Fold this protein.
Amino acid sequence: MPEADIDITFDEDNRIRVMPKDKYKATEQLDEQCKAFTEKIHAFGATVQTLVEVLDSESQKIEYEKLRAIGQRNRAEMEAESRRRKQQNMQAIIQEKTQELERLTFQLNSLERAEREQKGLIEKLSNNEC
């Protein structure tokens, strides 16, 4: 038994339609809108993918620069430590050289005194022989 509210019609291509013409047009529009929406969603997905790739690339650059900055900071800290050690080393060398100078000065004074004494003794002995 056919129902009373079902309307069977033919479209412009002579195809049988169970829906009324206006509802069929509305469903076709809805189908087109869905396809357009799907295309927009795919385009949006591609745009988001591109954005994610760009952000990943930028984050890698940032990480590289961050590591480079950390390396430079460590190098600067090591340079300061190296200079401090070098200064301490130079001060130790200066102190050693100062002590060596004092020792050599003392030795020179001792040798000069011994030389004077020997010259005096030679002078004395030379005066006694004559």
User: Anything to note?
Assistant: The helical segments are 21-129. The chain has one helix and two strands.
